[in-house]
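Data card: per-record layout.
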Amino acid sequence: MNKVTPIDQEYFFDDEIIVSQTDLKGVIVYANKAFSSISGYPLDELVGQSHSIVRHPDMPELVFSKMWVTIQGAQAWNGLVKNLRKDGQYYWVDTEILPSQDKDGNITGYMAVRKIASRKDIDENKETYNKMLQSEA
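The structure for this 137-residue chain is written out next.
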């Protein structure tokens, strides 16, 4: 069995802004090159897929439940997310998701803007996420 390891995200992706846009159901309608690079997926494999294509199994359901409630309520959501690359490695991102709205205030989709998470933030969140996962089991 292959050992899953983190990528050297600070070396390869420092200062990169990772952007994606989804429709109301979380299907990717736009992804920038930084998202393609860090996820290991070509752009044509990202667009049209559910954003959960990069969801790591170590992420608690509760994090995403709270995220959906927040963004569907037309509020911005911010949190640390562990994502899974196409090659099985993983990476952590500090994520902000903003609802996109039309001129009448109706939510038309979501935009996620991410940057590489700091080692301090990762260490602080790992324990919390592990406890959440244990309570979900």
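Known properties of this structure: The chain has one domain: 9-136. The first strand starts at residue 18 and ends at 22.

See the next section for split statistics.
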